[in-house]
Specification:
heterodimer, A: mainly alpha, globular, B: mainly alpha, 2 strands, 72% helix, 2% strand
Chain lengths: 322, 287
């Protein structure tokens, strides 16, 4: 069985050094965005999706678990943060904390259910769980059904930073993205991350070596869900709304697509994939449902001919780990 | 009580669709090791196929009941030959991703041309009207859907569990290499299996056209419920898929009567309960 990711480069020399250089380039590029005239709203949105895709990639790329319901964390954190800001009148930092904590709690519950099955069943279960949440959010009053929560006040972060200023908001979102990204980077390169990779490659052997694989998978799932929720909480400040779109299965599909396009199991792939797909949606917004068709074509093309993804191909060509 | 029986009937009809669809998924999974995410889209294509036959070629319901599954089945076999077959040997998850992409393409194309609203498809003359059973009023078409689906499900069960072709199929599921050594053309069998599973989905689509209208997204949400059905039933047994499908439809119907707020979610909640009690599914083998 061919594994999901191209791991022939795992032992590449200076892997960490290459990755640090790439991280430096990425950070520098993102820092100068407000001075380049690129529409900051687009980059902020892409950054939220990038963090989301990175959290998804932590599960599939390093744990071998395909979650087809990651939108539930995005949507849950979004709704809770939006409600906290608008109805409870909490400060932005507390609202982000509340949203992220809600996603973490959801991760514990859904994780305990989903890790009871592996492989294809895991994907179906996460999809079904997110659909269950979708219907709950459709019916509970606090989400305002089809309308969603709109007109969310952005407020001041720590009482200082005025988030209704686009430039300030941009750097806050960027900081949030970088914190999440580094956390994932650290996790992947930790002993915990190594055990996860071992489980992905051969769970039976990992069990025979004495690892309680269920606990590792559950922890990875909770961590991934929490970070996806963090991305959802940040996105509330960008979009200023929280709606059913963010919990829908098509959103879960888009997260998968971003990661697949960028490169499953690569560190920077999900970021690139998120920018590519978000840009595509911006440019093709006028073409109605053809966007869905194009997304489908990209899915098919990636699976049939381009399984390494953009960053995976580059890494393969350069014989580096990215 | 009238309302309860009416909801039970709706439940049985939904159960018929769950059974036909999960049966197809199980058959395909057995041979191809792929969870066919495009199943909902192909179910929708079955309904559209009946609609086209009627409105473009003036071919009615009865021929459509045979022609639509064959047409969509052939379409499915082309998909298998041109795309799915390249996935053998890769991780199962790629099959899910590929068929998800195919579902997006098919549904997106239909949405472009037909929007999201429903197109009407009328009940054939022979099945119009209803009869009074004393305790409830039974619309004939609805009764027909339940009985016909049951017959098709049992015929499929018979085909797979009791015939020589089915025996070959089951053998190839267990050990394809060994079956090939006996001179049986396994790749062709895989293609035909996919066609069969897809044909069952299209048949469910034709059956549902007069009840649910013909919509591009009619299969998109349904397939997720069917996934939950498959998780509950497990894909190990054909009869298990059929029984689970019908049973969950009935439970959903009962929920609509007793606690309508939960009717959308009851199948998913049951899935959670089954996973907590018996993770391998009700009829599944431990993995």
């Amino acid at each position: 069985m061919t594994a999901l990711t191209d791991d022939t480069l795992a032992a590449a020399p200076h892997a960490i050094r290459d990755e640090m250089i790439a991280f430096g380039i990425m950070t520098a590029l993102l820092l100068i965005v407000p001075f380049t005239g690129v529409y900051p709203f687009f980059v902020m949105q892409a950054l939220c999706f990038a963090l989301l895709a990175c959290s998804f990639n932590l599960l599939i790329g390093y744990g071998g678990l395909l979650s087809f319901g990651h939108a539930m964390f995005l949507g849950t954190a979004g709704y809770v943060s939006a409600h906290a800001l608008k109805v409870w009148g909490l400060t932005p930092e507390l609202a982000i904390l509340a949203g992220t904590a809600a996603a973490a709690g959801l991760g514990v519950i859904t994780g305990l259910i989903a890790i009871r099955r592996q492989g294809i069943y895991f994907a179906m279960i996460t999809l079904a769980l997110s659909q269950l949440l979708y219907f709950i959010y459709l019916q509970t009053p606090f989400t305002h059904g089809e309308d969603g929560i709109q007109g969310i006040p952005q407020g001041r972060l720590f009482g200082l930073l005025n988030l209704s200023n686009p430039t300030v908001l941009y750097y806050v979102i960027l900081a949030g993205f970088l914190i999440g990204f580094l956390l994932i980077f650290r996790t992947i390169n930790s002993p915990f991350g190594e055990v996860l990779k071992a489980i992905r490659e051969n769970e039976q052997r990992a069990i025979s070596l004495g690892y309680k694989t269920d606990q590792y998978k559950l922890l990875a799932f909770i961590l991934s869900g929490t970070l996806a929720g963090f991305a959802g909480a940040l996105k509330v400040f960008v979009a200023q709304n929280a709606s059913l779109t963010d919990v829908h299965w098509s959103m879960s599909g888009e997260i998968v697509l971003m990661t697949l396009v960028g490169g499953l199991g690569t560190i920077f792939g999900p970021v690139v994939g998120a920018f590519v797909i978000t840009a595509m949606q911006q440019y093709l917004a006028g073409y109605g449902q053809w966007v869905t068709v194009i997304q489908g074509v990209i899915f098919v093309a990636c699976v049939l001919a381009f399984r390494r993804g953009i960053i995976g191909e580059i890494a393969h060509l350069l014989r580096r780990s990215l | 009580m009238q309302a309860l029986y009416a909801q039970l009937l709706v439940g049985l009809i939904n159960g018929s669709f769950y059974a036909l669809l999960s049966l197809g998924l199980a058959v395909i999974f057995g041979m191809l090791n792929i969870i066919n995410f495009a199943h909902g889209a192909l179910y929708m294509m079955g309904a559209f196929c009946a609609y086209f036959l009627l409105n473009l070629l003036n071919i009615g319901y009865w021929p459509a009941l045979i022609l639509a599954p064959i047409a969509v089945g052939i379409f499915g076999m082309i998909l298998e030959r041109t795309m799915l077959q390249w996935l053998s040997g890769l991780d199962h998850l790629y099959g899910l991703l590929l068929t998800f992409g195919m579902a997006l393409i098919i549904q997106g194309v239909f949405q472009n041309y037909f929007g999201s609203s429903g197109l009407p498809y009328s009940i054939p003359d022979a099945l119009k009207g209803g009869m009074n059973l004393g305790f409830m009023y039974l619309p004939i078409y609805r009764g027909w859907v339940v009985i016909f689906s049951l017959v098709v499900c049992l015929a499929t069960w018979y085909l797979i569990e009791r015939t020589r072709l089915g025996a070959n199929l089951r053998a190839a599921t267990e050990n394809p290499t060994l079956v090939r050594a006996f001179g049986i053309n396994v790749p062709r069998m895989i293609t035909l299996t996919y066609g069969l599973g897809v044909g069952l989905a299209a048949l469910a689509g034709v059956l549902s056209a007069p009840i649910n209208q013909v919509r591009p997204l009619m299969g998109a949400d349904l397939i997720i419920v069917v996934f939950a059905v498959v998780v509950i039933g497990g894909m190990g047994s054909i009869m298990g898929s059929i029984v689970t499908g019908f049973a969950l439809g009935v439970i959903e119907g009962l929920t609509k009567y007793f606690y309508p707020e939960a009717s959308n979610t009851v199948v998913f909640v049951l899935m959670v309960l089954v996973l907590l009690v018996k993770p391998s599914g009700l009829t599944g083998r431990a993995n």
